[in-house]
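We include this case.
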Amino acid sequence: MRRLFKSLFLVVLLLLTACSSPLWATDLPAQGGTSAPPLPVIAPSGLQALQQRLDGLKQQISAANNYNQLEGPQDRVQAFILDVDRLSAALLPQQAQLAVQLGVLGAAPDTELAAEQDDIVAQRAALAEQKSKVDGTLKSLAALKQNAAELITQIAGIRRTLLESELTLSTRSVLSPHFWAPLVNPSQDDRHRLRLFVEQVRDVWARVWAPGERFYTAMLMLLALLIWTFGRRLADRGLTWFCIHRVPEGRLRRSALAFASAIATLITTAIALHLLFYACTRNEALPPVLETFSEEFEKVVYACVLITALSRALLSTEHPSWRLPAIADPVALALKPYPRLISCTLLVLVTLVQVSNATGMSSQIVIAGRGVISLVVMAIVVTLLLRVGKVRKALLASNDLSPANNTFAGVIYTVVSLSMFVSAIALLAGYVSLARFISYELVWAYIVLSGFYLLIQLVKDACEHAFSPKHASGKALKQLLGVSDRRLDQMSTLLSGVSRAGLLLMALIALFVGGIGTTLGQLMTNIMSILGGAGLRKLNIVPGHLLNALLALMIGIYLIRALSRWLDNEFLPKTDMDPGMCASLSTLFSNIGYAFVILLTLSSLGVQWTNLAWIVSALSVGIGFGLQEIVKNFVSGLILLTERPVKVGDLISISGVEGDIRRINVRATEIQLSDRSIVIVPNSQLISQNLRNVTLGGSAQGVASLELVFALDIDPEEVKQLLLDAYQENETILDKPAPFVRFSKLSQDGITLTVTGYVSSPRIVGLTKSDLLFEVLKRLGAAGIVLAKAPAA
């Protein structure tokens, strides 16, 4: 099997190599000597050929008389723009090289002051002439690209106008015999056009089946048939084997199996189509009519293949345990034959309609073909609805269908039924193009929603697996970033949610900017033209820079966290700074580091700072209306960390709140009270309000003061000595300053004495006062001295 795969790969590689050729190969100058090979140069004839190519596209667009005839020219204009971009990119290095060489030679000196050798003068003139030619060529290419871009806009407007006119065009009803007359008895002009088309097909076949070409043609067609049949099965089985034996068991394996099934079918079909096209065009290009037909036929084939591939991947009737959507087995078996039936029907009927479009047959033939497509698709879909409805009723009767599945399936069933009802009314009323449009949009919606559903499930399961702490990737991320299992789960949920939201947005856009016959490249171009609007283009955000930005963000966060741990655990503890200063420096370093990482991430995205004026304007408006408090607190936090009027560990008192500063954040400060509860105070209050820092400077002392009221008949001197003895014998009371007793007040209620002593820290004042009260009351009781009674109220 490995040899067969290698052989097929080599054959395909050789064929693709034979088909490909550089766009500017005919204009390359000869390489001579030992000098470096010169960069591509476009001759005037090449520019003239590009202009003629663009003029030919304009003629094709102007000659189009229906909506579908503009799909091919639109793709060719996109290809023209890509070719011009490649040519411009090839000339830019040469322009830069010539500019550097001219800069080395410098400007021509004043003949009165200095003279140059003749060879330098000649070299400067030759380089200037070459640079002038390159600049002129780049300007011409830019003008061609601008004209092509304007042509794309014009095509979009023309297609919109033609679509509106076709949808509102009223013809005969499908019940009228005159409606089918052009198909039964076509006009002489239509017969002539069909005869010319058949003759061109015969000429091409005679050319590729000539006596000297039959063997190669037969081998290529046989190889294409083998790849489309046996190759698809081998690719499907190979990818299935890989998913079963290499993808971890679980939801990721199930979604990977479904995705692999769809990809195997799509890739093998693409290879087979390219082989067939090469077999017909290896010696001579197709005539314009057949080339247009082949392009449209390829799009139809891809659409039909997507229908069958996605249906087989999602229904998974052979392996129900691999099925992604919650579809009951009887419903899946009932749906199984219809995707292939619709694909084959569309392939045949749409191909016939494309023949009429490519040959330019009359509008009556085109409308009749659309009527046939609408009727056949409606018949198949109605049969599908009836059969599935019967199965669902049986499941509901036996309670084998869950309410959630019943609700979602009911919504789909209702939408499809209404679409078929409107399509039937349009056919009966004579609006055949509207009925065809509804049928096409229904099929396109199925392709888009099924494809993006598969991608969403794959991305979701991949995120859950990558960030799971049970797998190697999750363990590596956990060790690299130093995060917990909970953080990994949050990262998985966030990344999965953002990815799914982006895919849903792209799916909604694809529903409206695409349709049957839209290629993947054209679809992605339309999506990116909407998502990548003028704002993103000004910011210079390129999809290729997203990976660099993600890596910069992850590496930056890891380095900041590692350096913060090193500062907290190794460097700062070995310095003479107090713990509060260490905490402030660590917090300030983290804030500056994260700001630098954000700037580095934006730079990796390719953001041009000169184009951020609109962001600054938006932020200024936001600050003026609702963010001024946040900005004020942020600036205040920076002031607290730099000037350090307070630091972590200080005992402060502000607005009736007294406690220790636990942490200074960017927006607010955490203060821990004596009961271990936390009060969050905005940083701006610590800057703008009166604040008492009890421990500022590290040498603050606490004051333990007691105020006692005694009766009038006591001996004040005896009481004074008793209080001083109690304070002096307490271990926490400092000798200097010495404790003292003050006669505070004398009234008819008694004598008020205040005793004051100092302790080493304000934090032990409360405990010291409690011990002193116990001791003073004990000594007063032993001496027979009582406190004065409070006056009666």
About this structure: Residues 1-40, 533-539 have pLDDT under 50 and may be disordered. The CA atoms of residues 266 and 631 lie 54 Å apart. Residues 118-167 form the longest helix (50 residues). The chain is about 70% helix and 5% strand.
